[in-house]
Design brief:
With 534 residues, the protein is an alpha+beta fold. The chain is built from eleven helices and 30 strands. The strands form eight sheets. Strands 3-30-29-28 form a four-stranded antiparallel beta sheet, with no helix packed on it. The chain is globular, with a radius of gyration of 24 Å.
Length: 534
C-alpha cells in the first residue's frame, strides 16, 4: 500500500531503529508516520515542503483523476477462451452476444405463464441474466453520512446485514432485510492506526473481523446480547504492521491475511493461534482471497505488481513456492477477486486497469521479469499524486497471459475494490469497481466496455458491494457517504400534462420494482405473487 520507493531492506532498517534501546530520533518518527500514511509531504506555493495530516480536510485530498476509457478493448484472447463459450452457452447468446431467439420481457412472461419456458416452466438462468441487464442500478439514494472518510462497506453473504467501517473508528451494522436500512449495532474498534482498512464477514454471517495498523486482527459477533471482541495475534515480529487484506475460509476455521511485510498469514480459529507465515511477495501484500469454497487454493496480489496462486495443501513455511504467477500489470496490485469457479480471478491495479486471469494460463519467467522491470520504473505515489503521463501510456508487458484488460476507472488515493457481479441475478456477466472520481464503474466481462458509470458521490469510492440476490449496489465513499444504487426508469415530462406523466411513470416504476423484486428473490419473502421462479 505504501510508496514503492520504500524497499524491504529500508523498512527493516527503520524497524530496527524503532525497536532499539535508544529513543527514536525525529527522522525515524517522520519516516514511520509517512510510511503508515498518517502524514504526507506536499509542495507549497513557494516551492517549500509542508507536512499535511492524512485526516486533513484539505482540498489536496481530492486528487484530480481523469481515467482514460478504452473505447476498443482487445477481445482476441477472451474471444478464443472457454470462459466466453461457457457464458454465451449459459445465457443463450450468439458469438456476438445477441439472443439466439427473439427476446422481450413481455414475451418471456407470456411463455412462462403457458409453461413454455426453457427451464421446465420456469425462467432459466439465461432468462434471469437477460432480464436483469435491462434493470441495472442507475439511481442513488444516500443511506448514511459520516463526518469522516468511509473505508469499507460490504453486504454479508445473505445480504441481510450491511457493514461500514469509518475513519472515526466505528463499525456500523445495518439490518437490510426486506429492503430496509436500519442501524442494528455499532462496534467501537480497537488498536486502530489511522483507520480500519479491511473487514470481512464469516460465511455464516455470525461474525465479522477487521484489521488496521496493528499486529492484531479483531473478531466480533454480529448477533447476540453478549458482545464478543477478541484480539487475534498474527505474531508478525514487527512493531509497524498492518494486514491490508483479510478473509475467512469457507468452513470458518481459518483466517487468511496479507500484510505490509510481504507475508501471508493463516490463523487457526480452533487452535486460537497463527499457524503459518509465508514470505510471499517482494513488497506489501494488498489483497488475498480464496479461489472457491474448498478454501484450498489461495490468491495473493501485492505492490510488486504480481498475482500469485497458492495450494493450501502444499503450503508450509519450508516451501514458499506458488503454484503459478500472473504478470501483466505495470504497477502494484490494489485488489483481487475470485469468480468462485477456481479458474478465474480479476486484479485491480494502480496502473489504472483491471485484468482477468485464467489459472490454467500462468506467466512465463520472461513475462514476470518484464513486469517487475515495469513496476520498478514507477516513481510516483498513487495516494496523493496524479497519474503521471508516462503511466497513462498503456504499457504492454510481453507475454501477458491475461484474458482481458478493462480501462476507464481511476485507482488513486487508496486500495479500491473490484468484484464480479452476483451469479444469482446477473450470471456474473459484469465486473464492477469503485473509482477515484467518486463513481461506480460497471464493465461487461466479455466486451471489456463500460456498461454503466454511476456518478453520485463527491470523493473516491473505495468499496462497492452488489447484493447477492437484490438488484442494488452499495457504494462507500471518502466523502463520508454510503449510497444505495437501484434501478429507476427515466422520466420524460410533458409540460402540458406533467402530473399525468408522473402518475404514469410511478406506475411503470412500480411494475419495474415488482419484476426486480421477483428477480432478486424478495418475492419469496414478502410478495404474494411470484413472477420469476427459478
Amino acid at each position: 500500500m505504501g510508496s514503492r520507493n520504500t524497499s524491504t531492506g529500508g523498512q527493516s532498517s527503520g524497524r530496527n531503529d524503532e525497536t532499539g534501546e535508544n529513543e527514536p530520533d525525529l527522522a525515524t518518527v517522520l519516516a514511520y508516520l509517512l510510511r503508515s500514511g498518517q502524514i504526507r509531504l506536499i509542495q507549497s506555493e513557494d516551492s517549500g515542503i509542508e507536512l499535511l495530516h492524512a485526516g486533513s480536510d484539505s482540498d489536496d485530498d481530492n486528487v484530480e483523476c481523469n481515467p482514460e476509457v478504452d473505447l476498443n478493448p482487445d477481445t482476441s484472447k477472451i474471444d478464443a477462451s472457454e470462459l466466453k463459450q461457457e457464458m454465451l452457452r449459459r445465457d443463450g447468446l450468439t458469438h456476438d452476444g445477441k439472443p439466439l431467439t427473439g427476446y422481450s420481457i413481455p414475451a418471456l412472461l407470456q411463455q412462462r405463464e403457458i409453461g413454455r419456458c426453457r427451464s421446465h416452466g420456469r425462467f432459466s438462468k439465461a432468462d434471469c441474466s437477460m432480464i436483469s441487464s435491462n434493470y441495472l442500478p442507475n439511481k442513488i439514494h444516500m443511506k448514511a453520512r459520516y463526518h469522516h472518510k468511509a473505508f469499507c462497506g460490504s453486504y454479508s453473504e445473505s445480504g441481510d446485514i450491511f457493514l461500514t467501517a469509518c475513519q472515526d473508528q466505528n463499525i456500523r451494522l445495518y439490518d437490510t432485510r426486506n429492503g430496509g436500512f436500519q442501524l442494528l449495532k455499532t462496534i467501537r474498534a480497537r488498536d486502530v492506526g489511522w483507520s480500519i482498512l479491511d473487514t470481512a464477514f464469516s460465511p455464516d454471517g455470525n461474525y465479522l473481523m477487521y484489521s488496521s495498523w496493528s499486529e492484531w486482527i479483531h473478531l466480533c459477533n454480529v448477533y447476540g446480547d453478549h458482545d464478543v471482541h477478541d484480539a487475534l495475534d498474527l505474531e508478525p515480529g514487527d512493531s509497524r504492521f498492518c494486514a491490508f487484506s483479510i478473509q475467512f475460509s469457507s468452513d470458518n476455521k481459518e483466517i487468511l491475511a496479507g500484510a505490509n511485510d510481504g507475508c501471508m498469514y493463516i490463523y487457526d480459529r480452533e487452535r486460537n493461534e497463527r499457524t503459518t507465515k509465508i514470505d510471499a511477495h517482494e513488497d506489501d501484500i494488498n489483497a488475498v482471497t480464496f479461489a472457491d469454497t474448498t478454501s484450498q487454493i489461495l490468491y495473493s496480489g501485492g505492490d510488486d505488481g504480481i498475482c500469485k496462486v497458492w495450494d493450501r495443501r502444499m503450503l508450509h513455511e519450508a516451501n514458499v513456492q506458488p503454484v503459478g504467477v500472473f504478470a501483466g500489470h505495470s504497477d502494484g496490485i490494489a485488489y483481487i477477486d475470485s469468480k468462485g469457479d477456481s479458474r478465474h480471478l480479476i486484479s485491480n491495479s494502480k496502473d489504472q486497469s483491471i485484468k482477468l486471469w485464467d489459472v490454467r494460463k500462468f506467466s512465463s519467467a520472461d513475462c514476470v521479469e518484464a513486469s517487475r522491470r515495469a513496476v520498478a520504473q514507477q516513481h510516483w505515489d498513487y495516494r496523493w499524486q496524479q497519474v503521471p503521463r508516462r503511466s497513462k501510456r498503456h504499457t504492454t508487458i510481453p507475454g501477458d497471459p491475461s484474458l482481458m484488460t478493462y480501462r476507464g476507472h481511476g485507482v488513486l488515493q487508496t486500495l479500491i475494490r473490484c468484484h464480479f457481479s452476483p451469479e444469482f441475478s446477473t450470471g456474473q456477466r459484469y465486473i464492477y469497481t469503485g473509482c477515484a472520481t467518486g463513481s461506480v464503474v460497471i464493465y461487461d466481462v466479455l466486451t471489456g466496455k463500460i456498461v454503466s458509470k454511476l456518478q453520485g458521490q463527491k470523493a473516491c469510492v473505495r468499496d462497492v458491494s452488489w447484493h447477492s440476490t437484490d438488484m442494488n449496489i452499495m457504494s462507500t465513499s471518502w466523502d463520508g457517504s454510503v449510497g444505495k444504487w437501484e434501478y429507476a426508469r427515466a422520466k420524460h415530462h410533458d409540460s402540458d400534462d406533467s402530473d399525468a406523466d408522473e402518475s404514469s411513470d410511478d406506475d411503470s416504476d412500480a411494475d419495474d420494482i415488482h419484476l426486480l423484486s421477483s428477480l432478486s428473490g424478495l418475492s419469496r419473502r414478502r410478495q404474494p405473487r411470484i413472477i420469476l421462479d427459478i
